[in-house]
Amino acid sequence: MPVGAVLHRRRGTGRAVLLAACCCCAYLLHGPGTFQTVAQVPVQSSGLDTDADIIDEVSFSAQLGQLVADNSELSAAAVLLLCFLVSMTESKTTTLPGVALEKRGDYNGVLFMNGLLSLTSGMLNALAFLELGATIAHHTGNMTHWGRNWGTDSFKFGCYLFFYLLGGGVVGFIKSDSEAVFAARYSPSLLSSTIAVLGGTAISMLGGKPLPCLALWSFSQGLQNCLCRKFSSMPLCSTHFTGYLSDAGHGLGSWVRAKQSGESTPNMKKTVLFLVCMFSFALGGFIAKVGRDSYGISVAFLPALLMAAVAKGLFPVFPTEEHQTKKK
């Protein structure tokens, strides 16, 4: 695709994302708990037809909210089905460069994208913990709790693990294009991850049980992280960073040793990527904490908006290797 066409598509997508951002901000400024407020506040009729219409609208909103709240598991299943159908629109032809990360011409784009996805994951994980009392982005602790609670309270931890696993399973089943999010291509799989976030958030805001929301968010993170893990240049992560910590420590130690001994310093591109993504994840947690104090769980619309922009190919903002080659 010519560079001009890519930029034109990004501008069009940017307008759509800007519109969505304005709608999101308008909702947030209206205040948290909008759905509950509409459903619970009684309307005093003045005998006019307009009041009757308002009562009908409020009644419909209340009934819809109550329907979702009473059938949160079924609602989550419907969201999962929609995610799978969207993922199935994935193109069967993919282009995988397979070049080492240090040799990629679009390294800055990869760095930016991995950092941005880490930011969204940090926000969702913090919101899940603060609002619903669980972690859904990393599962070492959940695996431990699942084992130690066998026979007592292990079901919910097993659900977090299963749905994260299911997200990766979708990527493998449909052979998702793992380069799409790093090369400004439309990614149905990441859009499915976004839909899962939006669906879980809506179920929670409408008064549904915590577990369906957490299951959908866990599915979303499993799908997103699997896309990063299958990146052709090296396995990346966006939802957990134990391995990144080890590799960043090794890279920094090797650099210090080379400096002290007068040897040639190693290539630090991977180490920089590890450090940037870890900081981005932590920054996401901080943003979620600040936003949640004012707007509650509705702050989850922000990472969903960013993920949707990535899925539509708005990012990365840096030229990809493919575009650089064609420009030459």
Structural description of this entry:
There is one protein chain. With 328 residues, the protein is mainly α. 70% of the residues lie in helices and 0% in strands. Helix 8 runs antiparallel to helix 12. The longest helix is centred in the first third of the chain and has 28 residues, at 3-30.
Summarize the entry for a quick read.
This protein has 13 helices and no strands.
Descriptive terms for the model:
328 residues; mainly alpha; 70% helix; 0% strand
Low-confidence stretches: 28-48, 321-328
Alpha-beta classification? mainly alpha
Task: Give the topology string: H per helix, E per strand.
Answer: HHHHHHHHHHHHH
How helix-rich are the residues, as a percent range? over 70%
| Span between termini | 14 Å
Enumerate how many helices there are, as a single number: 13
Largest sheet: none
Query: Average pLDDT across residues?
Result: 82
Shape: globular
The number of strands is: 0
How is this fold's topology laid out?
Layout: H1 3-30, H2 34-40, H3 49-70, H4 72-87, H5 107-132, H6 140-148, H7 155-174, H8 188-205, H9 210-229, H10 242-261, H11 269-295, H12 301-311, H13 321-327
Helix pairs in contact: 1-12, 2-3, 4-8, 4-9, 5-9, 5-11, 5-12, 6-7, 7-9, 8-9, 8-12, 10-11
